[in-house]
Amino acid sequence: MASKLTCILYLEPSHSSQFYQSILKFYDQSLKLVGPNNAHQYDPHISMTGFFTLYDSQRIINNCNIDENHEYISAYKKLDQIIQFIDNFLNNNHNITYPLVKNIIFSNSKNLLIPLQVCQEMLDLVNQLSQLSFDESNSNSNILAKDNSTKTIIRPKAINHLSLAYYEDGFFSNNTMKNLESMANKFIVFDEVKEQKCGWDIVIYEKIHHSIRIEEKHVFREIKRWNIF
User: If DSSP codes are grouped into helix, strand and coil, which group holds residue 38?
Assistant: First the structure.
């Protein structure tokens, strides 16, 4: 069985910022006072992509016999390609503007979140990232994939909110949501983001442990962090 890496790309407020720390405080207090939801499995973040899997794989060169002419491609080599792509994109795109975050907290029966808006360049980054080819048959005109099950699919996200509380399956009662919204308005400090003084980072992580308990965090390993503001 091929080795693999499960990764994801996030946009994050600076960990030292009052904005980020106040969201952590909200997570802690909401867990204690209201109980767990799926947001407690993560640290504060905005998803730029869904989770994607990088596999070790082989590809056939020049349509030759696979036992005579094939190339081994490790999951780590593919990860390096993604990092290099992001490096190049950020170095060549100097019009990335500050995320627009208002002091608005939105709620419905399944979600409590902070809406935000990013520039077109941010959306272009993930859309172009989703088109990268590794071991797929169209990665090179004279290269064919040995096993399509190793194909990497990077799914772009809308990059339009930071989750404060949510259920993947299930709903909040009206009373619970009112309590959560009241706590969020009490704890979360928007001054830095409104004044564009909060730092922002793009971060790629490897997920190394998936928790099945919503009160317990998934475990991530930081691969690389790009400070953009």
Answer: helix
State the residue range of the domain holding 84.
4-227
Angle, in degrees to the nearest 10, between helices 75-92 and 120-129: 150
User: What stretch of H or E contains 165?
Assistant: strand 161-166
Q: Is the pTM of this model over 0.70?
A: yes
Q: Render 113-157 in DSSP notation, one character per residue.
A: EEEEE--HHHHHHHHHHTT--SSSGGGSTTEEES-GGG-----B-
Q: C-alpha 75: how far from its chain's center?
A: 18
**CATH number for the domain that contains residue 86:** 3.90.1140.10
pLDDT of residue 91: 97
Number of structural domains found in the chain: 1
Tokens of 4: 């693999």
